[in-house]
Design a protein that fits this description.
Structural class: alpha+beta
CATH topology of the domain at 51-161: Immunoglobulin-like
Helix content: 10-25%
Order of helices and strands: HHHEEEEEEE
Number of strands: 7
Bound molecules: heme C
Number of helices: 3
Radius of gyration: 16 Å
Strand content: 15-25%
CATH class of the domain at 51-161: Mainly Beta
Shape: globular
Distance between the termini: 37 Å
């Protein structure tokens, strides 16, 4: 049984007490070891699910839920673990090889997702009132999480983080 399942059961058993402890809403639950925001999202479906998780493996490859071309999470620090809540209100800007610019805003757990098409290779940057951070190299893989893992794969520094 996973932590999330355990928490769900505990919430069911606690019944009315769940309303007070917040079981219904944010997902809450145990905060992962590396988590700069010190808040977890243990939701398993919906827009606040699995921040930092590999969205596209399920939402495209395995045919679960809607098919996303781009999806991912902007987190608080490079080595934040999956399910650590990311950063709200950051704009992820993707520029396709056709010059089309797409702006996606992160939600309350830092997640962003998009179902339209993007011409590759593309460039990406993240923007907020604090400034911006850009990816220097153009990429062809639209699955940000294949490189922006907690450890960082294919030379990425780790997570996509807020400026
Ligand atoms: C382990 C597989 C898996 C991963 C990883 C995953 N999802 Fe999901 N997602 C699902 C499933 C299953 C559903 C429910 C689909 C349904 O109800 O038809 C879902 C539902 C959703 C929904 C609601 C869609 C709708 O219209 O009802 C959103 C939004 C979503 N996921 C976004 C994300 C994002 C963003 C990520 C990455 C940060 C992510 N998911 C990672 C499997 C996954
Ligand atoms: C194939 C691997 C790969 C994929 C896929 C990828 N990136 Fe990156 N990303 C990198 C590497 C490597 C760097 C560091 C070097 C550079 O900037 O080009 C980086 C850097 C970044 C940075 C700057 C990081 C910093 O802290 O300065 C941002 C922002 C970024 N990527 C966003 C994205 C977004 C958004 C996506 C998905 C739409 C994405 N990346 C997909 C490999 C990848």
């Amino acid at each position: 049984m996973t932590i999330a399942d355990g928490r769900f059961l505990a919430c069911l058993l606690l019944g009315a007490a769940a309303l007070l402890s917040g079981c219904e809403d944010e997902g809450g639950g145990d905060v992962p070891a590396n988590c700069s925001t010190n808040e977890a999202s243990n939701e398993d479906e919906g827009e606040r699910m699995r921040p930092g998780g590999n969205c596209i493996t399920c939402h495209e490859d395995e045919g679960e839920g809607p098919r996303y071309t781009i999806a991912g999470t902007v987190m608080g620090a490079y080595h934040d673990d999956e399910r650590c809540v990311g950063v709200d209100g950051v704009t992820v800007e993707i520029t396709g090889s056709d010059g089309k610019v797409l702006s996606l805003d992160t939600n309350s757990v830092g997640n962003f997702f998009y179902t339209g098409s993007v011409a590759t290779p593309y460039t990406a940057k993240v923007k907020s009132s604090a400034g911006e951070k850009a990816m220097t190299a153009a990429q062809s893989d639209l699955n940000c999480a294949s490189c922006h893992t907690a450890e960082g794969a294919s030379s990425a520094p780790g997570r996509i983080i807020a400026p």
